[in-house]
Amino acid sequence: QVQLVESGGGLVQSGGSLRLSCAASGFTFSSYAMSWYRQAPGKERELVAVITSAGGYINYADSVKGRFTISRDDAKNTVYLQMNSLKAEDTAVYYCKAANYYTYWGQGTQVTVSS
Question: Which tens digit of pLDDT belongs to each residue from 11-31?
Fold first, then answer.
């Protein structure tokens, strides 16, 4: 059974940091590109960061460049999103996605940044 379980969300003050984790199971994690998306209330889901298999390619949305860092640990089947210098506009539900032959989504974790 495929599972993507996000954790690490919460309430943080503006300027603070959070580290999100997404633990994967049920598929060959190392073969999949992993991404973080977010969806704020009333807005469409948007790509935040992506890392390909073996970390060969990494890219970020312009809005988070220089503040967020995506990484993966294939030994732990986990992808991370380190979020620094958080802003109120980063408030959203954050989802991880696995993509290769199939596409899988996690259930999301809420990040709330108070100004």
Answer: 999 999 999 999 999 999 999
